Amino acid sequence: METPNFLGGNIRLLQMRERDLPAICECRNTGGVRERFMDAEEVTEESTRQWFEKCIEEGDCLWVICPRDTENIVGMVSLYGIDVAESMAQFGRLMVLPEFQRFGYAREALATVMGWAKYSGLDHLMLEVRNDNRPAILLYESTGWETEVIEEEVRVMSRSL
Ligand SMILES: CC(C)(COP(=O)(O)OP(=O)(O)OC[C@H]1O[C@@H](n2cnc3c(N)ncnc32)[C@H](O)[C@@H]1OP(=O)(O)O)[C@@H](O)C(=O)NCCC(=O)NCCS
Fold first, then answer.
1. Is 71 a residue whose pLDDT tops 90?
2. Half-sphere exposure of 41 (CA within 13 A, CB side)
C-alpha cells in the first residue's frame, strides 16, 4: 500500500522519512506520550532507526503529523500489519506532542488514515489501547471504534470502514 502525503484542513500528513526519526524519537520519549504506550521504555535514536527499517521492510504506512502551514513535526500515525488478502490492518502509533494536543490534530489524522485505508481496499482496522488511556479511548469511541476484547491492561478495538 502506498503512503501518500495529505494536505488537510489543519494538518499535513507526510510520509515519514529517515531524516524525521530524531523528532519522532523525541516525541515518543516525551512525558505524557511515552507512558501511554504498552512498551513505556525510553527509545533511542538507534532503536528508532531499527524500528523504522523494519516497518519499511514490512510495508507499513508511516506518516508524520505537521500543523498545516509548518514543517514542524508534532506527532505521527501509522497503519501496520497490512493484510490486503484479509482487507485489514492495525492502526497505531498515534501520538501528538503535549503542547499540540487538543487542537483536533489526532482526530483529523485518524479520519484521513481511515479514509485512505478504505480507498485502498481495506474494510477493517484493529488497534490496541491501554485501558487507562481515557483520552485515546474517547477519541476512538467518538469515531466509531468498538471494543472487542478487554484484558487487564489493554483493550482491542475495531472499526469497519
Ligand atoms: C490521544 C492523543 C493522540 C490525542 O491527540 P489530540 O491531537 O490531542 O486529540 P484531538 O485534539 O484530535 O482530540 C480528539 C478527541 O480525543 C479526546 N481527547 C483528547 N485528549 C483528551 C483529554 N486530555 N481528555 C479527554 N479527552 C481527550 C476527546 O474526545 C477529543 O475530542 P474533543 O476535543 O471533541 O473532546 C494524544 O493525547 C496523545 O498523543 N497521547 C499520548 C499517546 C497516545 O495515547 N497515543 C494513543 C495510543 S493508542
1. no
2. 5
